[in-house]
Specification:
This is Neutral metalloproteinase. GO terms for molecular function: metal ion binding; metalloendopeptidase activity. Extracellular zinc metalloprotease. It is found in: Secreted. The chain is α+β, with helices and mostly antiparallel strands. It folds into two domains: 267 residues, Neutral Protease, domain 2 (Orthogonal Bundle); 192 residues, Galactose-binding domain-like (Jelly Rolls), CATH 2.60.120. It has eight helices and 24 strands. The strands form seven sheets. Strands 8, 10, 11, 14, 19, 22 and 24 form a seven-stranded antiparallel β-sheet that branches. Strands 9, 12, 13, 17, 18 and 23 form a six-stranded antiparallel β-sheet that branches. Strands 1-3-2 form a three-stranded mixed β-sheet, covered by helices on one side. A hairpin with a 2-residue loop joins strand 15 and strand 16. Helix 1 crosses helix 2. The protein is globular. It binds calcium ion (3 copies) and zinc ion.
Length: 507
């Protein structure tokens, strides 16, 4: 609380009588509907799964607008702006962002951010359709519309047909990965210019269309697939299980796999009457929306991951780390490497540099530009050294494979950030490992204006994780150490993430 302010007093508390301000009463009813939906359809006790009281701030003001436009979830409460109080779908949407913080913790950027937005729309609309909230418009013609209760902004998105332009700020979203409406943002081309955090409110359409195909009653023919809707109660259970299994850096192919495996799990455990026939509908919806395919634009596409082992051989792990240790674990760190918390309750959760972005598990190692260093020269070099010493065996093939994502500064074609992998033999001098890469190796040269030379390394943006692989076989017979070196110039979302590093032989 700032000095001069008075403490907040609740306008209405649980079980209390209606008050004069309609926004308060509507929000009270909407939160009640959202709570009951979570309990009944997901089996979840409130946002944190542990009964946290639901709180909302209505007619919220900031320094410039009063009330603010829009609404959002702020760590532990729902902030309700102008013309927003009316919609129970909107209330459940914002609460779902809170649930995500406590579960998959999907990072609010590119495809993981689009999936985050899609989950919020899906649970928002599921709740809307199974609940009759007084003061909201529940006519069947509004089914699968999001935000239809807003008087001025009107519905903003259609889950049935995301390509429809709706409402005052009408925009079109993709209904499949190859849709011409797939949003290639300025951030896809230059991560220094975030554009809807990589199109999160647009590319949510792919997930929304799949949810409609899966949940809406009736037979839907779309993109060559014939899907029989399984209804909201079954779909809600499947989506909730998916939400608990995805990593924070999940992309659409991960959502595709999680939908089919979650459905199979629930059908095997006889949950909510889900059957293998229902799971066939889920798989058809995944195929129809092309979730496993990359978007058509190379600027938005992910880099296909490196293979693990040649066909007909399998991996024997020599050493591995997933960065799940909240401390530095088996790493020696200098400079700006950090391991963000596994749970995303930071109010600035849209700032990716403060958020976990993990390919597996809950954590990953991140080299980033902290905001308080933005305007301070010079560029920064950070080193993470794996304490584990590898003994590379003779007479077999040894690989090092790791997951990485990058959002590194590029300015007018100049790479202002780069990442390097280095090794040393038997405690000798560190050497560049660029020549050892077999898959997804270095991409470009650092600009010499950074003051760290013009060495070729990992540059630019990947919009998500990919896996790179090096062949360590030429180092056989030596004690090998590995380190990651990042040079990141000022740019507010410059970052390099590492996860799931493994050294292994294939045989
Ligand atoms: Ca409603
Ligand atoms: Ca709605
Ligand atoms: Ca991890
Ligand atoms: Zn949202």
């Amino acid at each position: 609380m700032k000095s001069g302010c008075t403490p907040a007093v609740a306008a209405r508390v649980e079980g209390g009588p209606a008050v004069e301000l309609a926004d308060v009463n509507q929000t009270y009813d909407n939160l009640g509907a959202a709570y009951n939906f979570l309990a009944t359809y997901l089996g979840r006790d409130s946002v944190d799964g542990n009964g946290i009281p639901l709180r909302a701030l209505v007619r919220a003001c900031d320094g410039t607008s009063c009330p603010v436009a829009g609404s959002f979830w702020a760590t532990d409460h729902f902030v309700v702006g102008d013309d927003i109080a009316a919609g129970d779908d909107i209330a459940t949407h914002e609460l779902t962002h809170g649930i995500i913080d406590y579960t998959s913790n999907l990072a609010y950027t590119f495809q993981s951010g689009a999936i985050n937005e899609s989950f919020a729309d899906i649970f928002g609309e599921f709740e809307d359709q199974v609940t009759a909230v007084p003061g909201t418009n529940d006519q069947p013609k509004n089914d699968w519309l999001f935000g239809e209760d807003q008087a001025r902004y009107q519905p903003v998105r259609s889950l049935a047909d995301p390509t429809r332009a709706l409402g005052r700020n009408g925009y079109r979203s993709p209904d499949r990965m190859h849709s011409p409406h797939y949003f290639v943002s300025a951030a896809d081309i230059d991560p220094g210019s975030p554009d809807d955090s990589g199109g999160v409110h647009y590319n949510s359409g792919v997930g929304n269309k799949a949810a409609w195909l899966i949940a809406a009653p009736g037979i839907h023919v779309f993109n060559g697939q014939r899907v029989t809707g399984i209804g909201i109660p079954k779909a809600a259970r499947i989506y909730y299980r998916v939400l608990q299994t995805l990593p924070s850096a999940a992309n659409y192919p991960d959502l595709a796999d999680a939908l089919t495996t979650s459905c199979a799990y629930l059908s095997a455990h006889q949950t909510e009457g889900i059957t293998t026939t229902d799971c066939l509908q889920v798989e058809r919806a995944v195929i129809a929306t092309e979730m496993r395919l990359p978007p058509l634009s190379p600027a938005a596409a992910l880099v296909p991951p490196a293979p693990v082992c040649p066909t007909d051989t399998s991996a024997t792990v020599l050493a591995a780390d997933g960065f799940e240790n909240p401390g530095t674990g088996p790493w020696t760190i200098t400079g700006q490497w950090r391991n963000p918390p596994a749970q995303g309750t930071d109010p600035a959760y849209t700032d990716i540099e403060y958020h976990a972005y993990a390919r597996e598990g809950k954590r990953a190692l991140e080299s980033y530009t902290p905001s308080d260093l933005l305007d301070k020269p010079p560029p920064r070099q950070s080193i993470a050294t794996w304490k584990t010493t590898l003994t590379v065996p003779a007479a077999t093939t040894t690989y090092l494979r790791f997951q990485q994502a990058r959002q590194m500064s590029v300015d007018e074609g100049k790479n202002l950030g780069a990442g390097y992998v280095e090794f040393r033999l038997d405690g000798g001098l560190w050497q560049d490992a660029g020549k050892l890469f077999t898959d997804n190796g270095y991409t470009g040269a650092l600009d010499k204006s950074t003051g760290y030379g013009a060495r070729t390394g990992f540059t630019g943006s990947t919009h998500g994780y990919t896996a790179s692989r090096l062949n360590l076989t030429p180092l056989a017979g030596h004690q090998v150490q590995i380190r990651f070196v990042s040079v990141i110039d000022k740019n507010y979302i410059s970052a390099w993430w590492l996860d799931d590093i493994r050294a292994y032989t294939c045989s």
